[in-house]
Structures are given as structure tokens and as C-alpha cells.
Design brief:
Blueprint: H1 2-18, H2 29-60, H3 71-75, H4 79-111, H5 116-119, H6 126-131, H7 135-151, H8 157-167, E1 176-177, E2 183-184
Antiparallel strand pairs: 1-2
Helix pairs in contact: 1-4, 1-7, 2-4, 4-7, 7-8
Length: 186
Amino acid sequence: MILKYICILSIIFLVFSCKSSKSKYTLKTKTKTELTVIIDSMYKLDQKIRRYYSFELDSIYGIKRDMRLKLKEILKEKYTSYKIKKDSARNLMHKIDNTNTLKLLKITKKHGFPSNERLNTYKAKAYMIFVHSNLNKYGEVIRNTINIEYKYNRINEYKKGYIFWHLDGRKGWPPMCGENGEAIWQ
């Protein structure tokens, strides 16, 4: 019930705070620069913990993909240490995801969605923060936020589709990006 109330308040706040800036490109240069630095640091942290969790830790312990089913047998006395580090990395990843999601929701409420088009940067990174968000905690708020941002052309169809693919349980393949930012489903 409380989560539903928070979602409704968030939507109302977003509608009224974002109505005044319907244009796709209303950010000042200084704001674009500041937001780019923030989004880049969030994305870098997001990717760093995922790389450590998915590849680097396994590499340290000499684990290859085909070995994962027999970890206890292969690692023997090192298994406990490996498991503790793996669990710690997963917990840290979830904390980073939650922090990044809240930060991006706050940024979006204040400035609109910081897409690479709006920030005038080459690579899109902000939408990936929502793709790693906790569905149970933030799914409905993110869905409502992205629908509003799409309505006001501050996020393209592809990024919206990719975020919704995550929110809908990652069934099938995510969309590909068309030439004009449209979502191409396979």
C-alpha cells in the first residue's frame, strides 16, 4: 500500500515538474556537463562491479564457464573463500544498483531523462541503470517515469523498449536499435 502511494505521488510530481519542459533539448550546457559526469560515474561503477562479479573473480580462482557446476569439487578448500567473495560482490552490486536507480530517478524528476541525445554525448548510458534496477522495489515507478519521459520525447522508443524488456522479466531478446531510435524486436 505504501509503495503504491509513493508511486502515485512520484507520478504526480513528475507530471507537474516535467510539463514545463516538453522540448527534447532544454538542458543548459553546464547542466549537460554536470549530468554527463554523474551518469558516467554511475555507469562506470555499475559496469565495474558486474565485471568483477561475472569475470574477474572467476579468473582469480581459475574458474571457466564450463566448470561452474562443479565448483566445490574443483576449488575444494578455496570454495568457501570464493563463495564469500562472490556473495559479497553480489550484495555490493545490488546496493550499487539501488543507489544508482534512486539517483537516476531523482535526476529524471529534476531534469527529465538524461539520454545521450539530450546530454549531447556519443554513448547512451543512463538507460542501462534502469535495466539493472530492482523490479520489486522500483519497477512501477520506473515504468511510470519512462512513460512520461517518452511522451515528452526525452527518451527514444528503443531505450524505453529495452527498459520495459527488463521490467517485464527479460523474456526473449531485448530490442535492437533502429537508425532513428526505434525499437526493433526480434
